[in-house]
## 1
Amino acid sequence: MTESAAVGRDPEAVSRFVESFAAQLVEAGVPRMPSRVFAALLASDTGTLTSADLGEQLRISPAAVSGAVRYLAQVHLVSREREPGSRRDRYRVHSDQWYEALTSREAIIKRWEDAIREGVASLGADTPAGRRLAETLAFFEFIEADVANIMERWRLHREQLSPKNGSEHREPAGSAD
């Protein structure tokens, strides 16, 4: 029995949401299968499903689940956990998945900034390509400053939300306990 049926939801309505949201993610550039798996996890009350659960709900193979989860873990949108007393993995989406994803993107942007700085120096700041790269660098630096402020504001705002919304909160990867 699917989770939706177990909690009295219309499984067709859940499926329509999953496919609709997944289509939005695909339109934004996320691969199709990871989009579907992510949407299914978001729609789960527990935020946790096994490979078998995902395969049954989405009608996809274990290999498709594995590839989708690998992608989603790399971009910090899901985590893999071992079921207690079992060899089976379960996959979890956390309430702070967007925070995690943006935080990991911040590190990528810093690396891009370094590469672009080198490009400006190599191409010459007064060349058309160098000016284009310099403007790209200025954009990334501008965004980076605002993202750091936004993330701090979100953390403070989240603390003011009801305790129910913060019940799954975990510290971002790399944070001290």
Note: The longest strand covers residues 79-82.
## 2
Amino acid sequence: MPEHAPLSRDRVLQAAVGLADEGGVAAVTMRAVAERLGVKPMSLYHHVPHKEAILDGIVDAVFADIELPLDEPDWRAALRHRAHSARTVLGRHSWAIALMESRAHPGPATLHHHDAVLGILSRAGFPYALAGHAYSLLDSYVYGFALTEAALPFAPQDVEIAVGDYLAAFPVGAYPHLAEFAAQHVLQPGYAYGSEFDYGLELILDTLAARLAGAGGP
């Protein structure tokens, strides 16, 4: 039988991320993590002091996965890249959406991420007040969109069947605007809810560019 790798903080956090991916944050307990690793719960305390430290660590791991194109000279391209990466990462770890800004003891990856995004905005000429508005707006949009995608009751490829079944459950003419919207937009060939992400993101970036110009930026 092969020997297990030595227990470490990284292994504890990897196990916790796996549990969260499978069953949400509620599935992450000291006992469950220990069982996943094949050790006794008390062994974990040599590497993490308590469950809150595990949550701090797995949120930090999610932030570490989000790409930050720091060498991109175009601030719009950099923020666009970061937004797409965040959406992808949160699609894999939807449990993290509600925790991303909730930790009282953020880890180094979390702090580096925030510092880097502010650096992108600062180098583009955003005054710090406008940078704060921009960062808040972008995060609200990305987190909100990722949360909506995670909560959809059907797979993206099944939208036509799901919407058709949904409308068929109500009397004809009961919701005429909804029915027309579905017929003229949602049920058209090539429709994908995920495409809405780019449309909304570009609106935000356009607005921020206009505000930056109004503030005397480039």
Note: The radius of gyration is 22 Å.
## 3
Amino acid sequence: MTEPELFQRAVATLRSVRTRPELELTEVRPPQRLAPWSFALTAEVTGPADELSTGRLVLLHDPDGVEAWSGVFRLVAYVRVELDAELAADPLLPEVGWSWLVEALEVAGAGFVALGGTVTQTSSARFGDIAGPARTDDLELRASWTAQTADLAAHGTAFFDVMATAVGLPPVGVSTLR
């Protein structure tokens, strides 16, 4: 079955997004049962303090539309970032993590509706003969929203900006002081 032209254009706009040089992108096999058409990217970026952020952006397309989506395109995002212990102790961290996404979408000018998701904070302690650091702290953001047009460049830009923000990279064009 041939991909619909509208879906092809949407994928092309995602592929056209210029990312920061620190961000590594890979196209991966998308989920097959969530929508008639789908596309997926994984991303990875390391911040100035060696925190690692990994993510996945999935585009779902149903030419007939889905009532729950309020449209024909749904973007699903997952971001996980390693945190330092001080930041992980902040009780407002989930709200801050969510604000990264909302602000990135708004700043990028991504037209969207039906935004929803979760932010999860986890802390793990290792004991005995398990290799790795004694303690790790992570933040996971899972979200989905409906794009209002097939031009998804602003949505891709927002997702990549969230990943960079999560690891503490300054905005493009801004240098950090050592």
Note: Strands lie at 24-28, 37-46, 52-66, 71-83, 112-125, 135-147.
